[in-house]
Amino acid sequence: MPISTTLRHMLGWVGENDTSIRLLESIDACGSINRAARHVGLSYKAAWEKIETLNNLSTTPLVIRQVGGSGGGGTVLTEEGRGLLRKVAILRREFAAFVGFLGERPDEALNALKMLRRFEMKVSARNVWAGTVAAIEQGAVNSVITVALKGGDTVVAVITDNSVHRLGLAPGMEVLAMVKAPSVLLGRDVRREQLSARNVLPGKVARIVPGVVNDEVIIDLPGGNTVTAINTCESVRRLGLQPGVEVAAIFKASSVLLAVV
Known about the structure:
By secondary structure, the protein is α+β, with helices and mostly antiparallel strands. The chain folds into three domains: 118 residues, Winged helix-like DNA-binding domain superfamily/Winged helix DNA-binding domain (Arc Repressor Mutant, subunit A); 52 residues, CATH 2.40.50.100; 70 residues, CATH 2.40.50.100. The chain has a five-stranded antiparallel beta sheet. A five-stranded antiparallel beta sheet has the order 7-11-8-9-10. Strands 1-2 form a two-stranded antiparallel sheet. Helix 2 crosses helix 5. The longest helix is centred in the first third of the chain and has 16 residues. 29% of the residues are buried. The model has no long low-confidence stretch (mean pLDDT 85). InterPro entries: LysR_HTH_N, Mo/tungstate-bd_C_term_dom, ModE, Molybdate_resp_trans_reg, Mop_domain, Transp-assoc_OB_typ1, WH-like_DNA-bd_sf, WH_DNA-bd_sf. Keywords: Molybdenum, Repeat, Transport.
């Protein structure tokens, strides 16, 4: 295997063919998710799903919706998103001499590479958030892990003590928290103290993707993350859900999986 290919594999960097980076570049160029999706060969829905995943995996949102204005609004990169593209441009230019680049700006290079590795990770869970371990409560068999997400949101997971040791979890450590969309329940006017579920995340409906039996509901959280839930069409109708409606995403701590990169 050529050394450049080996190094790309070790770093989790696929170069110019990275769909996530090409999508960010296209959004930055045209300011339209629709045109950017067509340019990189994605459907509109697939492009939005990728953007939501990228925003969840980044410490701050990379892409935001811009409403109104003389151009009628659109989709734009944040300063963090443009900063990432600048770092990627550096990696592209300096890849042949990466060891020298790493020696000059180790923190900047490693932070960009760590984010790229998150983007390339493939899991079946629809919800994947980047965070840090805030607290660990150890029990006889299981431990309760509190994960701090960006913007003040938190997620609680219950995993075995063996898993805590195997992952090497400790306060302050970076982790990924994952929850499957069917495990997320939705509720309005929810009182946390009346629920057994540890995770109750209030937010607003961003959009709804209708289906024949189930609808996909994407919720914007105050901290900048999104949560995706798959509920029956009847439940969505009964709750009166539509964009802008306040709703709580509810899931058990046992439904949360943790991973380290």
